[in-house]
From TrEMBL, chain A:
This is Transport permease protein. It is found in: Cell membrane; Membrane. InterPro entries: ABC2_TM, ABC2_TM_bact-type, ABC_2_transport, Nod_factor_ABC_transporter. Its main location: membrane. It comes from Actinokineospora diospyrosa. The chain crosses the membrane at residues 21-42, 62-84, 105-130, 136-160, 181-205, 225-245. The keyword Transmembrane applies. Belongs to the ABC-2 integral membrane protein family.
From TrEMBL, chain B:
GO terms for molecular function: ATP binding. The lineage of its organism: Bacteria, Bacillati, Actinomycetota, Actinomycetes, Pseudonocardiales. It is found in: Cell membrane. The keyword Transcription regulation does not apply. Belongs to the ABC transporter superfamily. Drug exporter-1 (DrugE1) (TC 3.A.1.105) family. Transmembrane segments: none annotated. Its main location: membrane. Gene3D superfamilies: P-loop containing nucleotide triphosphate hydrolases. This is ABC-2 type transport system ATP-binding protein. Residues 2-240 form the ABC transporter domain. It is a peripheral membrane protein. Keywords: ATP-binding, Nucleotide-binding, Transport.
Length: 254, 317
């Protein structure tokens, strides 16, 4: 009970801060929307080999990939925010109170996830006039998968920030984790266009499965193996990374 | 209210082979009575913040025991947390939120219900004269206003003991005097206040008792008056221009000079009786043909206490 209440307390405070600093939100939108407007029109022809006939087909493939990039990359940056708050004493102020230590980190992670999901919804809505059509039920399921991915990325980033509490060293570490993960997942173009060896490597990448799962939900193939496999993988990974992050945090801050 | 025995903490800096250990706190013993303003006076890096952070459960000590308001620091840090308030050196207000929001949040972090938290925030705002800008974002506050929000946050749960880490650093004299009054009011309401400072005036004027800390160790402890009386006699300072070492040589060894400190701009002489010593000192200097700018006689200050105990002055840093 106390733990839930404390998590809610931390979450609402972080959401208030997001609300009061709209600049951060806007910057988060600009890039995906630019991609949507300037890059996606090239896709109909590029994706023709995968069977895309119309812009709607192209957007059904492209938008989910864009959303995966958004939640992963932004999620991976959460650790910097945490380091900043540790330095500025904001977290220290909470630590002198009996507030739950796990709540301090979970409430923060949840606020990142909710913010990212808000951005994901806006991007989806912006894509609608371009011809994106998607089944509402499957869309909700895709959002759930994205939210879990965001949670996982965020928790992983927190854990790495606890491991290497220096922003200068954290950046390269995060890049070296996030780049292969996103390159080998076919976020921008589906890997069905890729040669066999690349796919063989990508199959070892959990993000490959979640990306394909999200995409299958957007394209209306909820029965695809990647949907349930991706869902199971992301649930397991989120649980694992959240546990790791909370442990690291509790150890670091006492 | 605070009982500390043999408190120690060291930090290890650097990586692998090139490690260096900083002994920040080296065996601190102290005891603070209920309703007392206890001052922790020391220069930069003396270990004041480290001690305060340990006592607020933020840092784990390497060694030592502490009981705060009846709660054992090692065995039950959770109980200590409910009984102490902490106002860190740097301040912790967030730019984007209002003082009222900060206070309500802090109260709720202590487990206080929403309605009650709002009520307490309102009272704290009034008590610290913050009501006027309570609903403005903290970014618009002056340093003194921010500091008052910090302190209001520290006492929102009505702690038995309040830790204030350098509460007046960066404040103008008027805000400082104001803050002193607020601290005194808290003490008069029964709170025990542990404050760190490197201002001699602050320690002297505000604190009931003082511990002087240097390099992680307490070098003197007592009321300001006791400490100053510990330095018996008077102090004569002679302002000299460059001829300090020569003057020191001439004056050293005279039986009325108990102790002599050579500073950058002159000499400090500790004497039993200033009125008889002063003419003698001037005669010696005249005979040595040493030109001096000023001669002053005064009662020992806390700085003299510090100087005698550590051989350094607090003031020049
Ligand atoms: N987290 C830390 N890691 C390494 N060294 C530290 C850490 N915190 C403090 N120290 C070192 O411990 C010593 C005591 O520091 P502390 O902050 O307690 O001093 P202070 O008396 O509060 O000084 P100031 O008046 O500057 O605030 C210093 O030498 C400082 O460099
Ligand atoms: Mg300090």
């Amino acid at each position: 009970m106390k733990f839930l209440r404390d998590t809610w307390l931390v979450f609402t405070r972080q959401m208030l801060l997001v609300w009061r600093t709209p600049a951060r939100l806007v910057i988060g939108f600009v890039q995906p929307v630019a991609y949507l407007v300037l890059f996606a029109p090239l896709l109909k022809t590029a994706l023709a080999p995968t069977g895309a006939q119309t812009y709607a087909d192209a957007y059904r493939v492209y938008v989910p990939g864009l959303l995966v990039v958004l939640v992963l990359l932004s999620g991976f940056f959460a650790g910097f925010g945490l380091l900043g708050e540790l330095r500025s004493g904001v977290i220290e102020r909470s630590r002198v109170t009996p507030v739950s230590r796990t709540a301090l980190i979970l409430g923060r992670a949840f606020s990142e996830v909710v913010t990212l999901m808000g951005q994901a919804v806006v991007i989806t809505v912006v894509a609608l006039p371009f011809g994106l059509t998607v089944h509402l039920g499957w869309l909700m399921l895709a959002y759930l998968m994205l939210a879990l991915m965001a949670l996982m990325a965020c928790a992983l980033s927190y854990a790495m920030a606890m491991l290497i509490p220096s922003p200068a060293a954290l950046g390269p570490l995060i890049n070296s984790v996030s780049q292969p993960l996103s390159l080998l997942s076919g976020v921008l173009l589906p890997l069905s266009l890729a040669p066999g060896w690349l796919v063989a490597i990508a199959e070892w990448n959990p993000i490959y499965w979640t990306t394909n799962g999200t995409r299958s939900l957007f394209t209306g193939n909820p029965g695809d193996v990647s949907v349930w496999a991706g869902m199971l993988i992301v649930i397991a990974l989120a649980a694992l990374t959240v546990t790791w992050a909370t442990r690291m945090f509790a150890r670091q801050v006492r | 209210m605070i009982e500390v025995k043999g408190l120690r903490k060291s930090f290890t800096l650097g990586k692998r082979r090139k490690t260096r250990t900083v002994e920040a706190v080296r065996g601190v013993d102290l005891s603070v009575a209920e309703g007392e303003i206890f001052g922790f006076l020391g220069p930069n890096g003396a270990g004041k913040t480290t001690t305060a952070r340990i006592l607020c459960t933020l840092l784990e000590p390497d060694d030592g025991e502490a009981v705060i308001a009846g709660a054992d620091l090692r065995k039950d840090p959770g109980a200590v947390r409910t009984k102490v308030g902490y106002v860190p050196q740097g301040g912790t207000t967030t730019d984007e939120v209002t003082a009222r929001e900060e206070l309500v949040l802090q109260a709720r972090m202590y487990g206080i219900g929403k309605a009650e938290a709002i009520e307490r925030a309102e009272q704290a705002l009034a008590a610290f004269e913050l009501t006027e800008f309570a609903d403005r974002q903290c970014r618009t506050y002056s340093g003194g206003q921010r500091r008052r929000v910090d302190i209001a946050m520290g006492i929102i749960h009505e702690p038995k003991v309040l830790f204030l880490d350098e509460p007046t650093t960066g404040l103008d004299p008027q805000s400082r005097a104001h803050l002193w009054d607020e601290v005194r009011r808290l003490r008069d309401a029964g709170m025990t206040v542990f404050l760190t400072t490197h201002y001699l005036e602050e320690a002297d004027a505000l604190c009931d008792r003082i511990a002087i800390i240097d390099h992680g160790e307490i070098v003197a402890l007592g009321t300001p008056t006791e400490l100053k009386h510990g330095v018996a006699g008077d102090v004569v300072t002679v302002g000299l221009n460059g001829s300090g070492p020569k003057a020191a040589e001439l004056l050293d060894g005279h039986d009325y000079v108990r102790k002599l400190e050579l500073g950058e701009d002159g000499l400090r002489l500790y004497v039993d009786d200033g009125t008889t010593a002063m003419p003698q000192i001037m005669r010696v200097l005249d005979a040595g043909e040493i030109h001096f700018d000023t001669v002053e006689l005064h009662r020992p200050s806390l700085d003299d206490v510090f100087l005698i105990k550590t051989g350094r002055s607090l003031r020049d840093k």
